[in-house]
Amino acid sequence: MEIAQSKEHASLSRKEFNSEQEEEGAGSPHEALFLVLAYLPLFELLSMSKVCKSLRDAVKKDILPWLNIIVERPFLNLRLSDEILMKIASKADGRLRTLALMNCARITDDGLQRVIDKNPLINKLHIPGCTGLTPNGVIRAVQTLSEHRHSLKSLQINGIYNMNKEHLERLQYYLLTNQTQQQVQQKQQPLLYHNYRKFQAYRWEEFGRIIDVEICPKCNEVRMVFDCPREECKRKREHSLCGCRMCKFCIPRCEECGRCVKPGDVEEAVCADTLCSDCWIQLSKCNFCNKPCCRQHANLQISSSGSTGWICGVCHDKFLGSDDVEQ
Fold first, then answer.
1. C-alpha Rg value of the chain to the nearest Å
2. pLDDT digit string (tens) for 9-37?
3. What are phi and psi of 154, to 5 degrees?
4. Which helix (H) or strand (E) segment is 24 a member of?
5. Minimal CA–CA distance to 85: which of 113, 48, 45?
6. Secondary structure percentages of the chain, helix, strand, coil, to 5
7. What are the tens digits of pLDDT across the range 103-137?
8. Is the separation of the CB atoms in 177 and 146 below 8 Å?
9. Higher pLDDT pick, 23 / 297
10. Which spans in 49-188 are helix H?
């Protein structure tokens, strides 16, 4: 047993020695690389730790890159579990400030609470689409953070299942410990659907809102409620009228401009997103079906080698062969 362990230790030491020799031969990383570590996204930060020994040690020993943990890439959020999250959060040594977990379905109430208990200084908690969490688990986490003088400045919970009015009221109670409802409303900026879709979720506080959901005036469900950029809708809002200020399930909104679209005015698009008539006219169309696609899904456009313009994937599969197009 001892002989086997000695051989394993010797093998590891030999690998570390060879790694150091390779690094010395290739030269040390530029000093600028060490300065940008704190600004790298999580995936790039984890990848950087595998480049060489110097960067691995810098990533391992420096706390600054780990103060803001943001998980938003599809291949990261699908793999993130309670154990992996705890291991990553432990690198902040209890000083974590931002925890943004976008659509991390494997995170549970217990996993989140363990991170919260170890990091009481968190002031941004963004967990939209984390379907493994429950309303009571979110309330427990927010309550824990509100017990410290560094209260939460921003909370995102859109997509948490079974959230109701009572849950929302309890969350608002803990969030508004140091601010009145009137003070919060004065800071709020209009929330437009198309702007939100293009916005980086972890910068939510720039909208001037503490929490991302509220009670929809029409369906009374706890959801994100969007404002409308139409002038007539703005005037209604200024006169404290509800107008079209509702969630996206109660009224469709244009993907390009965010305006409310009446059911009879919805235009067809290649990407199946909602478009108003004005935006439908302005966008370029498929050469075959004459349907546009929003700018967010421009990757669905396939260029044709024999003509100008583009064709959609459906028309390409139906009318053309793979030799006739260029991606």
1. 25
2. 444 444 444 444 444 445 566 676 667 77
3. -155, 135
4. helix 2-26
5. 113
6. 45, 10, 40
7. 999 999 999 999 999 999 999 999 999 999 999 99
8. yes
9. 297
10. 53-61, 74-77, 82-89, 109-118, 135-146, 165-175, 181-187
